[in-house]
Amino acid sequence: MPRLPTPLTLPAGHARGDGQQNHGQDRDRADHADGAGEPEPGRRRRSPLRRGETATAWAFITPAVLIILGLSVIPVAWSVLLSFQASDLVTPSRWVGLDNYRALSQDPNFSQAVRNTLLYTVLYVPLSIGIGLALALVLNRRIRLVGLYRTLIFVPFVVSATAQGVLFSFILDPEFGAANSVLNTLGISPQGFLTDPGQALLVLVAISLWSGTGFCVVVCLAALQDVQPSLIEAARLDGAGRWQLLRHVTLPAMAPVSVFLLVWQTINALQVFDLVYVTTKGGPLGSTTVIVYFIWEQAFKNFTAGYGAAAAYVLAVALGLVTVGLRLVRGREQRRSARPVRLEGAGK
After folding, report:
1. Which phi and psi angles does 102 have, rounded to 5°?
2. Nearest-angstrom CA–CA distance, 190 and 174
3. Do 288 and 272 touch, CB atoms closer than 8 A?
4. What pTM, to 2 d.p., does this model score?
5. What is the pLDDT of residues 188-197, one digit of tens each?
6. 328/263 Cα distance (integer angstroms)
7. What are the angstrom distances between the C-alpha of 97 and each of 86, 198, 307, 310?
8. For labeling, which of 52, 90, 169, 216 is most exposed (least CB within 10 Å)?
9. d(C-alpha 256, C-alpha 333), whole Å
10. Measured between alpha carbons, how far is residue 7 from residues 11, 14, 15, 18 in Å?
11. Exposed/middle/buried for 193, CB within 10 Å: 0-12, 13-18, 19+?
């Protein structure tokens, strides 16, 4: 068997020195290559591709920015200035300072509109959420045609308030409406409904419940289906009944959704307008005049736009306070629920 040749090697110091020299040369070449293409400070320019991407981005953003400025920011700023002026939107306006707000505090029609709006809100908001939760609990079970029932309950919410007003104006007509015909058949005397000052606002609340409850049903149903089945099963194993499950398991799990519905329905109730405009136009005798209808009446019927703008900002401040208050209450509940529970005798 032939003998293998002895490998040719270099001394350790010589090999290490050559490696360091080669590494230094490679590093110098890399540094030179990096610095060769880098422009001097003050002369750095963006590539044409980067400039093209920036121009394209601005081309997509600009229409949305213009719409927001034209339909939101500018009208809000203009209406703020208008609330401190006496203007009819035709002749040149005149600066009056806080006179519009002082007049609002002494206007009995505005006070009546505030009372009507608060009464409408106090009746509509809890009833819509309560009825919506009750229907959601029923529809959360496995029953036949449950999909059809859910659809039928949600359909009125899709119908516009204008169409609802026209429909119920015919149904509740005191002379030719179907409602009084049914009451007459049952032996009940005819009712005035929308023409009776004592009934008109309550009838509007009932119409709003017919349409607005469907939204609450859908939201509550989604929240119920999101409750963890393990919590319900554990409570049942501990002997909890239906009422105890609802009170101690279901409702606490639905707390965020409940706060959302409370805020949403309150804002909608304080801003109700189209239903009033189509059905009663604020009557009879101002019994259904709400704040938004009062604002419209002052600005576009009486041509006192500055006065109407001041009323609008009173409503805006009220909405802001309601939202902030509910947010603070929700934050306090979250902090309270996040506190560790101290068991009795734990420190002993």
Report:
1. -65, -40
2. 7
3. no
4. 0.76
5. 898 999 999 9
6. 12
7. 9, 38, 11, 11
8. 90
9. 10
10. 13, 17, 15, 19
11. buried
